[in-house]
Amino acid sequence: MNEIQSLQRSVRQWVASNRERMTELLFDLIRFDTVNRIVDGTERKCQEALCAKLLKLGMEAKLYNLEDVPGFREHPAYYPGKDYRDRPNVIASWRGTGGGRSLLFSGHIDTAAIAPGWTTDPIEPFVTGSRLYGLGSYDMKGGLVAAIMAVRCLMELGVRLHGEVMIESVVDEEFGGANGTVAGRARGDHADAVIIPEPTNLALYPATRGGALWRVVFEGTTGLSFNGETVRNPAVDAARFIVYLEQLEQERSLKSGPAPWYSDSQTTLPIIVTRLEAGDLGSPLCDVGPVECRVDIWVECYPGVDEEGLREELLSGYERFCGRRYEEGLALPSFSRMIRFLPGSAVEPEFALLPILAHEMEEAMGRPATVAGSPFACDAFVFNEYSPSKALVLGPSGGNAHAPGEFVDLDSLDTLVEIYAMTMVNWCGCSSADRHG
């Protein structure tokens, strides 16, 4: 048995013996309310507790306020309109002995809103079998805990890495936030490679989708045409547009995405109507049509598509669907952003971390690694489009993200700790003389 095989065996044994400690850490983080309230949030207490745990582990760790970072608001990926009082980031470092490559694990501590339908307290976690239930367990406190436990594993096994390992816990990722991640890049927290522990069901994503959340507004006229007035009900125009969106989603599902990460994609690019409003909702009844109909939609896209291009795809396709041009009287809706546009992003197939991470996945799982483009958008674009640190996405298995009954699979977290730990060893460098146990 060679040195690496021996270390992998030790890592696997350590992981098997430390599930309870991993579970306790995840319980501790879930019990803090870190719901993203779109404009503001209450992540501070959780971040303070996490920072204290990282310091106790032996990492250099600190809290910092986003607004105190020089160049934060001037960063090209900064998005205005948010309140970051009581919403600090955490950055922690495990210094290497020198001469190795650095690795950053970037996770977000905020969660989506509490969805209707929870039958238990969402911030009082519990375990049933291999499933740990709780808000944020899957998206993405579980992946963040796996990164922390991987560092703890190597520390307790006496491993000394040549390169530096960093762990950051950022605020405001949900609902297209990403400013927490922007602040870290403006601060200069860069590494030779980045792993984002978003939930991927143990698949490796070198690319992520983009998306836009728009409010699409159709305007019309109302009243009763007793005297021949022209009445145009915008709800009818909106209904036609929604039918078109359904067809467009189906048409998109028949086409593969850009090579190499989406060329074999069999998943649908979602177009979701998230909200529909028309008429005077405060009135006890309405006997005429509305003057405005608002349709909120979430539309995803592949890397390489910008916001204007995505909007034009919808508008030009709607003309073809209706067989009529806007100049000929087809209702032209207005589009307004509900959140920032999230561009898709991708790393090159030659990115050096890819084969290392895929190899460690195969070793830990006993099967070839699944490597493909992600079926979701996230903050990876901040790294891949706006920093020298390129990011891959790899996280645990689970279910019900952004939904009642969210859970993470503890067996997958065990596997993830092993993958992360061995990736640190092979990416950052480690010699046999650096191991003391």
Automatic annotation (TrEMBL):
One of its GO terms (molecular function) is hydrolase activity. InterPro entries: ArgE/DapE_CS (IPR001261), Peptidase_M20 (IPR002933), Peptidase_M20A (IPR050072). Keywords: Hydrolase, Zinc. This is M20/M25/M40 family metallo-hydrolase. It comes from Cohnella fermenti.
